[in-house]
Design brief:
single chain, 300 residues, alpha+beta, Bactericidal permeability-increasing protein, domain 1, 3 domains, eight-stranded antiparallel sheet, two-stranded antiparallel sheet, 29% helix, elongated
Length: 300
């Protein structure tokens, strides 16, 4: 664009000199003015193949999108600025990622943990059912704390769906998908908190069945992985929840206690989010220690 602007300036100067100079000067053969630039919407590129596609790492990104079953037409029909910026961000992120193992190669993942931590190799599977002494979950939306004792779990032999190193942050990420997980306690304590009063505590059974959810665990410091310093978040793909609560769980002379049950029913999705704030970390840690590598952590 700078070259074309300079050309315009030169043409204007020659025209001015010719207009004011002696009349006997020979005629000047002026070049044709450059063709105007094509009018394109903001952010649209006239030849996308010569721009973003040539950025280093773009081919790796396309392969990643294709393997995930996503469209590789990353610029869209118009190549708008917003999508271009999004893809550039994805390219930069992908360039920082290293994948030492395929997600379905559990043996490779085990050896990676062995060489980057002080854990002991585990071969699984997670016991069916898995026994846990106590599970405590908080539901602040309805002022309820649920303490389940002698909990029996099933379905914790999940499937690894992502595994990579982020070189920029020095973090390891492992993501595990779980399906048809069950939670059962014969004796669960329902503690309803009340303003300026003692809590109401009921005891009864609880049964939960989760169709599908995925945990994402980030462990810092690749050179010495420590599971106790990790962070886990849970994403619920299917908010459908099959559950059964004991008949005495929400019984009380205080009308505020039974009134919490319909509130819970009307927003199961939020209830799941509250539950997985504590449960998700346990599920992920159990899978890692029983199937991949045992860090010696006592999972309470």
């Amino acid at each position: 664009m700078f070259a074309k602007v300079a050309c315009f300036a030169l043409v204007l100067i020659v025209w001015e000199c010719n207009a004011q100079g002696p009349k006997d000067l020979p005629p000047v053969n002026l070049p044709n003015p450059p063709a105007p630039l094509p009018s394109l919407p903001l952010g649209q590129v006239s030849n996308p193949s010569n721009t973003i596609q040539n950025v280093p790492g773009f081919g790796n990104l396309l392969n990643t999108l294709a393997s995930a079953g996503q469209s590789t037409n990353v610029l869209g029909p118009l190549g708008n600025l917003q999508s271009t910026q999004r893809i550039i961000g994805q390219i930069n992120e992908e360039m920082d990622i290293e994948r030492p193992c395929r997600v379905n190669d559990v043996s490779c993942i085990r050896h990676f943990f062995l060489h980057h931590s002080k854990c002991e190799e585990a071969h699984g599977p997670v016991p069916e059912p898995l026994h846990r002494k106590v599970s405590t979950t908080y539901f602040p939306r309805i002022n309820l704390t649920l303490t389940a004792t002698d909990v029996l779990y099933s379905g914790l032999n999940g499937k690894i769906v992502e595994f990579f190193i982020d070189k920029e942050t020095d973090n390891l990420l492992i993501s595990v998908e779980f399906r048809n997980v069950t939670f059962y306690s014969k004796e669960a304590y329902y503690r309803f908190h009340r303003k300026a009063k003692l809590p109401v505590v009921n005891k009864d059974f609880i049964f939960l069945n989760f169709p599908s959810f995925t945990t994402t665990t980030i462990i810092p410091h690749i050179s010495e992985l420590q599971l106790d310093k990790s962070e886990t978040t849970t994403f619920v793909e299917d908010p459908t929840l099959v559950f059964s609560l004991g008949p005495k769980a929400f019984v009380s002379s205080d009308p505020a206690v039974p009134a919490t049950l319909p509130v819970l029913y009307l927003d199961i999705r939020t209830g799941l989010q509250e539950l997985f704030l504590t449960e998700g970390t346990f599920y992920a840690a159990v899978f890692i220690q029983k199937v991949i590598c045992d860090f010696g952590l006592e999972l309470l």
